[in-house]
Design brief:
Strand content: 5-15%
Radius of gyration: 22 Å
Structural class: alpha+beta
Number of strands: 15
Distance between the termini: 23 Å
Helix content: 25-40%
Shape: flat
Strand order of the largest sheet: 1-3-2-6
Order of helices and strands: EHHEEHEEEEHHEEHEEEEHEEHHH
Largest sheet: 4 strands, mixed
Oligomer: single chain
Length: about 375
């Protein structure tokens, strides 16, 4: 996957939140303020201030491309993003508010796109990654899945080697099964054994299905044995802490409870941080005594939608924990010879494959209503 993009740099934490209503309230507070108070709430950086012009984000109806100080416009509709590992939140899609929005990623964001994100372990998401997660590698270089972000010659070579049609998603599944972090980045061995390829493909498809929670139009995966996490008691008041009882496999949010929560889900970590604890911390951050300005604006009561998200998240983490030993034991077998990869034009990938494709098929509005030139 030669084309890789650095992560989005938001520049100000208040433009993303777990609750879309909080983002609308923050927009209203910001646009209702004036002068120095608006500038203080905005949180200026060298890249973005209220007087900085910016183009509209591709594929989004921008409230305005005028300077924010002159004409903020109506609140843009929040969009779903991956903010932290396995934590889907919301973002205000206005490039005037985002230090580095990576418009090249927005241009290829559609229902066919998947993003591989290089954290300590590879994450795959259908949502735009919008946090400090690592480098982002889109599966497709153009909208509609028209061109895979793969080294030229790779798919024909693998199809000939393994005796069948190989798709871009097959390669992504293989990466999930066989790839490992290495000293030069995320390293993916390519096997010369068709049987090993098929085994890795089967494991990778299971990993991908779990990470995507089934995907569009598909049934979400379930825990084996008919076990299914349920909300046993609703969250009545704002929970002050998250607790776990391993004996009863119960996750407690104050007086609210979810069970069964397998130990593997509770203990699941990314980069040394428990995912469930990070998920809870993100939803209570606005109540922290140190929160100020727009970041302190959030729901007054715990939203029911957050409780409803938990069973699906618990299921995802539990299934990934169950698959972890199988993935750790998987080996790619004898590698494809480097000379064969070079002869097929796979290595080294050409320079153009490392850059975004030209996908501009319509005018994009630049700063101040001018057309963007690419």
């Amino acid at each position: 996957m030669p084309w890789a993009v650095g992560g989005l740099r938001l520049g100000r934490a208040w433009v993303a939140a777990p609750d879309p209503a909080a983002l609308r309230a923050r927009w209203a507070a910001l646009t209702g303020a004036e002068g120095t108070e608006r500038e203080r709430l905005f949180r200026p950086t060298r890249s973005r201030t209220p007087t900085t012009g910016a183009a509209a984000l591709p594929g989004r109806r921008s409230p305005s491309t005028a300077r924010f100080a002159d004409a903020p416009g109506p609140c843009p509709e929040p969009v779903r993003v991956l903010r932290d590992p396995f934590d889907e939140q919301w973002l205000l899609p206005d490039q005037r508010l985002i230090d580095t929005a990576r418009p090249e990623l927005w241009r290829v964001l559609d229902e066919h796109q998947l993003f591989a994100v290089e954290t300590p372990e590879l994450l795959v998401t259908a949502h735009l990654p919008a946090g400090r997660l690592g480098r982002i590698r889109p599966l497709h270089r153009r909208p509609g899945g028209a061109e895979p972000n793969l080294a030229p010659g790779l798919l024909p070579l693998l199809g000939e080697r393994y005796g069948g049609w190989v798709t871009p998603q097959d390669v992504l599944c293989w990466i999930l099964a066989a790839g490992r972090p290495g000293p030069r980045g995320y390293e993916v061995p390519l096997t010369g054994d068709p049987g090993c390829w098929r085994a890795g493909l089967e494991l990778g498809h299971r990993l991908l299905t779990v990470q995507l929670r089934g995907g569009p139009g598909a049934e979400p995966p379930r825990l084996p044995g008919g076990r299914r996490p349920y909300v046993r008691s609703a969250v009545q008041a704002w929970p002050e802490r998250l607790a776990y009882d391993p004996e009863t496999e119960t996750l407690a949010l104050g007086a609210g409870t979810v069970s069964p929560v397998p130990p593997g889900a509770w203990e699941f970590e990314v980069g040394g941080t428990r995912v469930l604890e990070a998920w809870f911390a993100a939803r209570t951050a606005h109540r922290d005594p140190g929160a100020d300005g727009l970041e302190a604006l959030g729901p007054a009561e715990w939203p029911q939608a957050w409780t409803s998200e938990l069973p699906a998240l618990v299921t995802t983490l539990a299934l990934l924990a169950d698959l972890a030993p199988e993935r750790a034991a998987f080996t790619a077998g004898p590698p494809l010879p480097a000379a064969e990869l070079a002869a097929a034009g796979v290595l080294p990938p050409p320079r153009w494959a490392r850059r975004p494709a030209s996908v501009l098929d319509h005018h994009e509005e630049g700063p101040g209503g001018q057309f963007a030139l690419l």
